[in-house]
Each structure stands twice: as C-alpha cells, then as structure tokens.
Amino acid sequence: MNNVTAAHKDKLMADLRVVISDAEELLRLGAEQTGASATEWRARVEERISHAKLKLADLQDTAAAKARAAGHAADDYVHEHPWKAIGAAAGVGLIVGLLIGRR
User: How far from 21 is each of 53, 83, 88, CA to CA, in Å?
Assistant: First the structure.
C-alpha cells in the first residue's frame, strides 16, 4: 500500500467518524420529537449508524492486518538478506542527503 492510498484511507476513516458522531448528535436532538414517523426515522438512523460503525471497524481491522503483514514481510526480508537491506538503506540515505545538501 503506498502513502497516497494510506493517506486517503486515513482521511476516509476520519471523515466517517465525523459523520457518525454528527448522526448520533442528530439522533439525540431528534429524540425530543414524538410520533410514529419520528420513531421510524430514529430506528432507520440507528440502523444506519450501527452499519457504518461495523464497516468502519472492518476497514480498520483490514488495514491493521495488511500493515502487520507488510511489517512481517519486511522483517523476514531483512533477516534473509541483511546486506541487501543495508545497501538499500545506504543508497536511500545517500540520495536524501544529496537532495537536502542542494538546498
């Protein structure tokens, strides 16, 4: 997963949390209303909120599992090929140092 995709998922999760909290606040404000239509409306909103929370939790679990898998794969690679990892890190450090030194 690249940084752009991770940033988009983080923003999506943050936006979804805001939407859920706003919907819960609307639900609390709507609790003062009475009548059959208000009860039906509240039930639909509660159902949608719980569905959104489940999807958010599933997305969070999936992202965490992928991150753990990527971490394990990187750890395994470094243990299997330590000199390649050291060379790659030195190369990246050299390039970053050159780019910073030009400024």
Answer: 10, 49, 45
